[in-house]
Amino acid sequence: MLKIFNSFSKKLEEFVPIRHDGKVRMYACGPTVYSYPTIGNWRTYVLSDLFLRVLQIKGYRVDFVMNLTDVGHLTGDNLGNADTGEDRLEKAAAKEKKTAWDIAKFYGDDFMDSFGKLNLIKPRLFSKATDHIKEQIDLVQRIEKAGFAYKITDGIYFDVAEYEKKGNVYGELSNLEEIKPGARVEINSEKRDQRDFALWKFFPAGEKRDMEWDSPWGMGFPGWHIECSAMSMKYLGEQLDVHIGGEDLKSTHHPNEIAQSESVTGKKPFVRYWMHGAFLLVDGGRMGKSLGNAYTLHDIIEKGYSPMALRYYYLSAHYRKKMNFSWEGMEGVSNSYKRLKKEFLALRVEGGQDKNIFGSKVEVELSGREVFFRDEFVSAVEDDLNMSAALAVTRVVLKDEKLNSFEKRRLVENFDKVFGLKLSERDEIPADIPEEVMEMVNKREEMRKTKQWSESDALRKEIEAKGYKVSDFFDGVTVEKV
Fold first, then answer.
1. Looking at the chain, which terminus has fewer C-beta neighbours within 10 angstroms, N or C?
2. Between β-strands 23-28 and 61-68, what pairing exists: parallel, antiparallel or unpaired?
């Protein structure tokens, strides 16, 4: 039984989709493509991927959409008021002397590339806000027609008090103690209620932006919150099974999504399960660009670490718990990942990854010992994605003396369908290995094929004397500098 913590009810709940068609409608808040995502952001995207993979081994068909925010996200969000400040895309464009469109394309393309490096399964659609201006305008008009929107000098705003008058509750999801007038935001005297939020924004007369659109209310651009409601409704319907994001979005962005969505759908619950990933700390403190520690995936790679080692790092802590990152920790985790992969690849047998061992469609007869470990693994991942416990099961499997090598390989290959750690893929031999060393490695492989064991062992020692280490696997070797 799959159980997850629902941020809305603040309880652990059995996961049961809204519909009975075997399909799960899942939406995740993606990046604002004005810069490189931080490793804190990537932790949330890996959470989405892990839940997707768990749903798949449970036999669900998952319709998954992730948005790309390429307009409307203002810098005031850092101060608790997403309706003030500069548009992040426009600000980045001015800084880099490019257009906002260029910024969105560059960082959007980089996100896609990094998505692959972290072995994240792509959603059916990466939905861009700028591709859905019509849908956002249409939704604002529906909200306006329902009586929950009004116009002031700088935009069209959602009327929270009017929403509450109709028997709705605003802010139930929020991780703020209470969403109340003036509690967290800069005062705007034109707002009817300081909790009201922008659906469509205007800009000062004479100001020219790269991104602007005509609307029934005048030239402007969509507010940040409206895009997720408009795009999720278009592609996944008026009710989502699960919505995933970082815990920072619990304060206002997700409560605003709920209010604007349910204001036009007859109070249908917009989302059944809300999942939020916790913050990532750096060296025990806050991560921030001003602090110089807002590390990116590029920083991880430039330091010589595999993206899969970073993914392994995320798995070591529960997604709802704050996680601390340090370069010392990264080194330790990288070594742990390498050991796990080496133990797995050292199993000198072909695996059975194409044979499913999960759910009602088990495609192979398993030994009693395999069934025991499979069930232990499933129990861990069904317990609100307890990946550290699932990793512990994996390590026990590799050391278990009652399992043969084939059984170990088959189990771990299937476990990796959830982990996504590419355990079956041998790392490429680094391009900077000297030609002389590679000639010795290749000669040793020929000796091994002809069972010249003592000669191959002697050659291994010569290679090690030159500062390199050879690791043997059933399908080849790897070489690394020591």
1. C
2. parallel
Annotated binding-site positions for ATP: 289
Count CB neighbours of 292 within 10 A. 8
Q: Can you tell me the distance from the alpha carbon of 222 to that of 460, in angstroms, rounded to the nearest whole number?
A: 64
- Cα atoms in the Cβ-side hemisphere of radius 13 Å centred on 283: 9
Could you tell me how far CA 475 lies from the centroid of its own chain? Answer: 32
Tell me the CA end-to-end span of the chain in Å, nearest whole number. 46
Residue 329: its H or E element: helix 327-345
Enumerate the H helices of 252-306 as residue ranges: 253-262, 297-302
Residue stretches of the annotated binding site: 29, 228, 253, 257, 289
Count of positions (residues) in the chain: 482
| Distance, CA of 74 to CA of 83 (rounded, Å) | 6
Q: Rounded to an integer, what distance in angstroms lies between the CA atom of residue 292 and that of residue 269?
A: 41
CB 157, CB 82: distance < 8 Å: no
Instruction: Report d(CA 35, CA 103) in Å as an integer.
Output: 8
Supply the DSSP symbol for 16. -
Amino acid at 35: S
Distance CA 328, CA 444 (A): 36
- Binding positions for Zn(2+): 29, 228, 253, 257
* Partners of 242 in beta bridges: 26, 273
